[in-house]
């Protein structure tokens, strides 16, 4: 059975829960969530007004937790909202936490607070764990339906349903904590609503190399993919991290390797070390990677010496479509290279008439 997690940077996250009865009596703060991926101690924080304004909630509710060098570690939001059971309401006081990429990190309750369901029974440990599991899944339908769709309205109040007088939609029971439909739905909507996009934008605004380097260490591929998409075309701003991303292009994980390669722009080929790293990849023979690297060269204003040398040495081993593209690239930039000329003489005798014609056309221009 999983247990609450004590996170670095959240000194209030203690746990003493062993039974459902102890939840209500517990004098320590409760936290359930996933491990933090930015392992940097918190040194300070900033606050901003949430784009979502609700009754009972203070306006300054979104907090950015920061470490050294202004590295975003996590985000949190204080929640104060009413949750109704059997026509009686109590105030839900809690906090939700996000990773800097907008991914769910966890939820916590301050001292003396607890979650409850039908007949005001406090959550059991298993129900806290189930809620955490539900909130961690970004693909639940709770993010795209209205509460009326979750709950089937009825004329008379029904005992045991929180939020409204109605029975829970049977098709959606798998996505809620039983007896706590509104609590589950409300927390999910907060976590995956406008606040999430606001947090992602906030991270983009405060992006620095120290954060990029730490985020690339994340064991969650989703964090790395998010970062690579944000960095697309901007790698020249982060020269140290750029070397690490170049190495990621060799990852056995196709999605990670592809997104790492997509992050590079033609400007990055001005760096000789990056060019060599990319051509090591080019010569490994992956069709998609060769296509991307050639596309970068074709969009460049100039072709550097390393690219000319590596293409000249390897052009005979390329597939026919790539041979044609390389020939046209050399023609476009009027590149002179003796090794390439020798390769063209061989290709002019190719069994592929189209490639042979392109090679002869190039040699005539010489």
Enumerate the spans where pLDDT stays under 50 for 5 or more consecutive residues: 1-26, 153-161
Helix content: 40-55%
User: Class by helix and strand content?
Assistant: alpha+beta
How would you describe the shape? Answer: elongated
Strand content: 5-15%
Overall strand count: 8
Radius of gyration of CA atoms, rounded to a whole number? 28 Å
For the largest beta-sheet, the strand count, sense and barrel status come to: 6 strands, antiparallel
Give the topology string: H per helix, E per strand.
Answer: HEEEEEEHHEEHHHHHHHHHHHH
Q: Distance between termini?
A: 74 Å
The number of helical elements comes to 15
Strand order of the largest sheet: 1-6-5-4-3-2
